[in-house]
Automatic annotation (TrEMBL):
Domain HTH cro/C1-type: 24-78
Organism in which the protein naturally occurs: Streptomyces chromofuscus
Gene3D superfamilies for this protein: 3.30.450.180, lambda repressor-like DNA-binding domains
SUPFAM superfamilies in the record: lambda repressor-like DNA-binding domains
GO molecular function terms listed in the Swiss-Prot or TrEMBL record: DNA binding
Matching CDD domains: HTH_XRE
Name listed for the protein in its UniProt record: Helix-turn-helix transcriptional regulator
Annotated Pfam families: HTH_3, MLTR_LBD
Length: 276
């Protein structure tokens, strides 16, 4: 299992010197919410929302947080909104190796270890791998050390032509799924670091060994499977991602636990025999 390092922070992409009004307007427009709809949700008036957005009215700290809540602004960017409005950040960003997060680390470790022999890992907002179990280690066997640097990145590991890409039998479908997932996260978080990673991985060439497509499988999957080759066998998994409910810390809010659920009995049997 990998060591849990401090989760690297991502600098807010919304500088405070722009003022809170334009930032709130940008979030509202991105969420495609009218001033009237936002006012009704937040218990305010469209006139007041307009005044806030144009800088004619300075919102209270409570109003900034209320508007951010109804616009589904990520926690890191809520701190940026508060700074832009002249208030102190509300949510701390505690390093993951801080003793204050001992319970979080221990809980995640128990969860992913308890999921063995099936693969499970913990990633941050930029998909850096903070922890992984033996099931993940099995899938990563034979990858070059350059991709396994500390911390390795889940998107690089999967999409790089020297990574898992040549082993994934439905790579084009899985690549499309991962890129769409990243696009949704970029729209939600507006993270420059995540955008940079997206541009990097989209530029990776598709390995020549990846087939254009395979005949339809007789198994009826209930979700898009990851079909990956290991030891001459094709293993099939369905991905599930869990996050913490109602977090009060930026670091915790940006953690995600991904588990790979075996999608067929053959995969179950193979992993149980490989990792008893």
């Amino acid at each position: 299992m990998t060591t849990l390092p401090s989760a690297p922070g991502t600098s807010p992409v919304t500088p405070a010197d722009r003022g809170v009004g334009p930032l709130l307007r940008a979030w509202r427009e991105q969420r495609r919410v009218s001033q009237l709809d936002l006012a009704l949700r937040a218990g305010s008036s469209a006139r007041h929302i307009s005044f806030v957005e144009t800088g004619r009215s300075r919102p209270s700290e409570e109003m900034v947080l209320r508007l951010a809540e109804h616009l589904d602004v990520p926690m890191r960017e809520r701190n940026a909104l508060l700074l832009a409005a002249g208030y102190a950040p509300r949510y701390p960003e505690t390093p993951l190796d801080d003793p204050a997060l001992d319970a979080v680390r221990a809980g995640m470790e128990r969860l992913i270890q308890g999921y063995e022999p099936y693969p499970a890992l913990v990633v941050d907002a930029r998909y850096d791998v903070l922890a992984a179990n033996r099931g993940i280690a099995v899938l990563l066997e034979g990858l070059p050390e350059s991709l396994l640097t500390d911390p390795p990145n889940a998107m690089r590991l999967t999409l790089h032509p020297q990574g898992l890409a040549p082993r994934i039998r439905n790579f084009r479908e899985w690549r499309g799924h991962l890129l769409a997932q990243m696009e949704r996260q970029i729209a939600l978080r507006r993270s420059a670091a995540l955008r940079e990673l997206y541009e990097e991985v989209t530029a990776y060439p598709v390995p020549e060994s990846v087939p254009e497509g395979e005949p339809a499988e007789p198994v009826a999957y209930f979700a898009l499977p990851l079909r990956i080759e290991h030891g001459g066998r094709i293993l099939s998994f369905v991905s599930s991602i869990s996050t913490f409910n109602t977090p009060m810390d930026v670091t915790v809010a940006e953690l995600a636990i991904e588990t790979l659920l075996p999608a067929d009995p053959a995969t179950v049997k193979y992993l149980q025999e490989l990792l008893p």
